[in-house]
Amino acid sequence: MRRFLKTGAIGLLALLVLVAIGLAIWEPLLAERAAPPPDHKYDSIIARDTFGVPHIFGKTDPDVAYGVAYAHAEDDFATLQEAVAMTRGRLGAMTGAAGAQTDYALALLGARATAHRDYMKQPADVRALLDAYASGLNKYAERHPGEVKLAKLFPANGEDIATGFVLRSPFFFGLDQTLGALVGETPLPVESAGATPDAPDPGALPAGTDVNEGNQNGSNAFVVAPKRSADGFTRVVSNSHQPWRGPVAWYELVVHSGTGWNFAGATFPGVPFPVLGHNETLGWTNTVNRPDLTDVYKLVLDGGGTHYRFDGKWLPLERTRVWLHVKIGPFVLPVPKTVLRSVHGPAIANKNGIFAIRYGGADQMRMIEEYYRLTRARNFAEWQKALAIQGVPATNFLYGDAAGNIAYFYNASFPNRKPGFDYAKVLPGDTSRDLTAGTVPFANVPRNVNPASGFLINANNTPYQAAGAGSEMRAGDYSPLLGIETDTTNRGTRALELMGADGAISRADLERIKYDTTVSRVGWAAKWFADIMAVDARGDRQIAAAKAVLAKWDWNYDGKGPADSIAALLLRAGNKWHYQRRPEADPREELGKAAAYLQDHFGRLDPPLGTVLRLRQGKVDLPLDGGPDVLRAAALWDEDPDGRLSVKHGDSFIMFMEWDKQGQVNSQSIQPFGAATTRPASPHYADQAPLFVAHKLKPVRFAPASLRGHVERVYRP
């Protein structure tokens, strides 16, 4: 009997070992190896300046795109290969549960199918760029096999790169918030200002846990025309607020092609060209806008749940089984999921029914051509022609050029909608009466071109607050069906206050405005702090002491006052509900939490802001000023074990561009860390940090001749 039990135990152990081995190796064994791009010999030259920023030269644009991929891989191959894994539905096998959620979104939105269907329909020059970029990644992976995390991930091809555009673009206007609410069975996000998050809504989801904080992307943009500048220059300030690490962190570069493609700016991992910045004659920046571009429909199912009613007919609900690959420790577990689709678009089932989604810019990949054409435009007319492609689903564009033109385009792929339906709420999914194909024409996209005020701003606020009194777009000129937001931010209010009060805006003025750390005395933040100061301490000594400290606050996050730290924590708490259009949080509760945090970690309620708010990268640990929703933005942070708040999102890539009276361009820029953000051994891991915290910029050596004497190395990849 003992021998039998011993034999059985050995057999069970052997079986468990086999299962463990299988779970560890099945994913790469079953993964399909992609076809490589067409064979082609690329000739790129990379010149690294003294800050490590790559200047990529090539005879052709594809030569340049090849070099862009290789240079970026040298600095951040870890993130780039995650971008490739994402397009293959293998991110979960690399990063775990969070990656598997992205893999589910890939399948749900049909991004891979869209790219596969439309790739060969793209213009030949666009496909050549994508193939070249993929080839640059492949070359790096071939030379550095020890850095590759997943077998059969390479070679990548142009279709992989295109898929990344299709998948990521809708998340910039908040589609992930809607998907997360439906999957998590929580209230849908409020899609327009003035709506009440908890308002009764026939067919809406019941109240529950709040959706993820998410969608805290921001940005500031400032544009000044010659008539408003003190010296007759045109100026554009790009001040995007993105995460400082990861798949949507900025990467600075300069490109030069023998065909005349010259551009300085920044790009994202997986993108073969800059997406904002300037060329010789024009430049632009982007800020997140938040129009209502997502329509949700509740389907009516038959008794078997296999068909849904639409215009009196029962149509089959498309069902596709997908397997998510989820890494847990050394194992990769297969998790089955069912992807649903109706005539409206992707659908999600939860305990309240099945909800289908239609969203702006869905099922297309024109955004790739659009961004590329924008970088090659030589004047305002050519630039507008590129923007009219309407491939970029949403984002504000603020523009300036050597001719003195300035403009603000509230760019979005607005879905065609019919009067008589409330598209901010869940719609009936059994009729075509509330469903219309197509996108609102580009001619109807809101814009403010060459305003009389001579300046334009945006800080994720309504487009009707951009140019000052007498120069604004009028809300009455645009259909409410566009879903344009009417809410604002402290940053938007403050920028307009500062720009509007300055009749002749100098370069120094613009720097002062950009780095402003003040909260406006009007707007949501002022009311929030008034509500906090009205809190009844009710005998709580710590809350009473916190109010006493806050009473000393000078409404400025410059790090000089005793109340800056507690005010920063409270503004962050306020921004969580304000930016997400939720009900106001309990001011007494938030004041108590802020006070407890400071007391627990610092032993006092008034530690200096620079002691609390930090820029940390490797061995670099520097004090920061600013805060959430001020123009010197520190939007999100991690709470480190020592209590310090390590900023991870806020002011990121900053670029000042200007064209003088003769039309000559000049620019300066800065990043929070450096060019090589995931390479601790690199001298450029955090070399820009001291300048960044000191509000200083470095030169952008755009003209090739300006590189002389400032080159670290030159090589062919």
Tell me about this structure.
Among the domains are: 30 residues; 160 residues, Penicillin amidase (Acylase) alpha subunit, N-terminal domain, CATH 1.10.1400. Helices cover 31% and strands 23% of the residues. It has 18 helices and 27 strands. A hairpin with a 4-residue loop joins strand 1 and strand 2. It is globular. About 4% of the residues have low confidence.
Number of helices: 18
Per the CATH scheme, the topology name of the domain at 524-666 and 686-702 is Penicillin amidase (Acylase) alpha subunit, N-terminal domain
Intertermini distance: 68 Å
CATH architecture of the domain at 524-666 and 686-702: Orthogonal Bundle
Write down the overall geometry.
Answer: globular
Strand arrangement in the largest pleated sheet: 19-17-16-8-7-6-5-2-1-27
Main sheet specs: 10 strands, mixed
Overall pLDDT score? 92
Report the top-level CATH class of the domain at 524-666 and 686-702: Mainly Alpha
- Low-pLDDT runs of 5+ residues are 14-20, 192-216
Q: Which band does the percent of strand residues land in?
A: 15-25%
